[in-house]
Design a protein that fits this description.
By secondary structure, the protein is an alpha+beta fold.
């Protein structure tokens, strides 16, 4: 596939350009002049749920977890091949575009509603700000209410079959989403299915 790519040499210029001209995907290094990749991810997430792929020479789990907790969609460590990078980009865009096209209506669970056209999540008519991964996870759960998903099934649905990390990333994502639902006082809750995984129930 052919992509129109614009290159920036620091995070500050990328952020200022994105505010004026949004794009479909951001690929960012962590160590950059101006804003670091982590800082850029935080700033972008305050504006948009555009997919973010982080690249770094760092390969420690804590670095990957921090990037994901700040809202990045995936992580790739140096050195990597162009084929691997292309595969990750293609899979991220396919998942995002596929989620956008899956429905032209609203789906709901108790007091939580997802508008699949605008990708907005509301709790009692108040917008719940979520990252792309958080949106996709809630969409997965609410389109399959009362069905339990294992961590492996969630990884395959949200990150894709080529994901190379461990399944603890699911727990981090669940933790962030639960916190947001709690702050919004949502009746719709993510339940733990002990020894297996997670589910959302439509029973108050």
């Amino acid at each position: 596939m052919n992509y129109a790519v614009e290159v920036f040499y620091n995070g500050t210029d990328l952020l200022e350009t994105y505010k004026k001209t949004p794009c479909d995907l951001i690929i960012t290094d962590i160590m950059m002049p101006g804003l670091s990749g982590y800082e850029l991810c935080r700033e972008i997430r305050a504006l948009s749920d555009v997919p973010i792929l982080m690249i770094s020479a760092k390969d420690e789990e804590i670095d990957r977890v921090l990037g994901l907790e700040l809202g990045s969609d995936d992580y790739i460590s140096k050195p990597f091949s162009l084929r691997e990078l292309s595969l990750k980009v293609r899979n991220i865009l396919r998942r995002v575009n596929g989620t956008q096209k899956t429905s032209d209506s609203q789906i709901s669970c108790l007091d939580l509603t997802i508008n699949t056209d605008s990708r907005e999540i509301t709790v009692n008519s108040q917008i719940l700000n979520t990252s792309n991964k958080e949106y996709e996870l809630l969409h997965l759960f609410i389109t399959n209410k009362n069905r339990a998903f294992s961590r492996e099934q969630i990884i395959q649905s949200i990150w894709g079959y080529d994901y190379m990390g461990d399944n603890r990333q699911v727990d981090h994502l669940i933790k962030r989403l639960r916190k947001k639902l709690l702050l919004a006082e949502a009746q719709c809750k993510i339940e733990t299915v002990w020894g297996f995984g997670y589910k959302v129930s439509d029973k108050d």
